[in-house]
């Protein structure tokens, strides 16, 4: 908070953070978060991970199945994960279940040995792996609390840029960027049946999943790609510097 008070301006990426820093910041600049496409189209240099990704991609090619899963840290809600595990088990010939991250003790009880688990790795390797794998359907459950509302919609950006159809909790920050049925699915509440229905609907209607994934990718590339956001960031900083340079002598700088 001391830093916030001392800085000439504070950059935030959503309204919740804007409200939280308002009592301390002299000025607030709000800019969208961003994602760089090149990170996800880079070759995968990690040989062990490359081998696992290749096996998954080959399985999909041979079976016509779908890679469905979750990427990230454990959530405070398990309904979506129970639904994912159930769908993966009942459709084992159609679905390869992916968990990219660290399983909590509860998740270890939910998921069986058929789950493909990829570990936490440096971001550069993660982005390349996700881009090379290009999962078909990815979920993003989130509880509705102020801390969660202060998150940026990274999962929407990263899921979309690799062409995956995303299913998200109907809470900010996802409800701020996703239009239900257009560039993703929004699930209200924390009900296992609702998540199961959403996942199953995209498995049963791959044309819908493809339309939503394409719309989401276009949205991210046109509005959130780093090449789009970087000039906005530069303009904001340049404008602030120019304004400060015009401060009258004796004024605070």
Q: What does the radius of gyration come to?
A: 20 Å
Domain unit count: 2
How many strands, which pairing sense, and closed or not: the largest β-sheet? 6 strands, parallel
Strand order of the largest sheet: 5-4-3-6-7-8
Category from helices, strands and their pairing: alpha/beta
**Helical fraction:** 40-55%
What is the level-2 CATH architecture name of the largest domain?
3-Layer(aba) Sandwich
Summed over residues and divided by their number, the pLDDT gives a mean of 91
Number of strands: 8
Shape: globular
What CATH calls the topology of the largest domain is: Rossmann fold
SS field, number of helical segments: 13
What is the percentage of strand-forming residues?
A: 5-15%
User: How far is the N terminus from the C terminus?
Assistant: 19 Å
Which H/E pattern describes the elements?
A: HEHEHHEHEHEHEHHEHEHHH
The oligomeric state of the chains shown is single chain
Give the CATH level 1 class of the largest domain: Alpha Beta
Low-confidence sequence ranges? none
CATH superfamily of the largest domain: Glycogen Phosphorylase B
Could you characterize the architecture of this molecule?
It is a single chain. This protein is globular. It has two domains: about 1-35 and about 225-245, no CATH class; about 35-225, Rossmann fold, CATH 3.40.50.2000. The strands form two sheets. Strands 5-4-3-6-7-8 form a six-stranded parallel β-sheet, sandwiched between helices. It has a two-stranded parallel ribbon with strand order 1-2. The longest helix has 20 residues, at about 225-245. The protein has 13 helices and eight strands. With about 250 residues, it is of the alpha/beta class. It is about 50% helix and about 15% strand. The protein has helices at about 1-5, 15-20, 35-40, 45-65, 80-90, 105-110, 125-135, 145-150, 155-160, 175, 190-205, 205-225, 225-245; strands spanning about 10, 30, 65-70, 95-100, 115-120, 135-140, 165-170, 185.
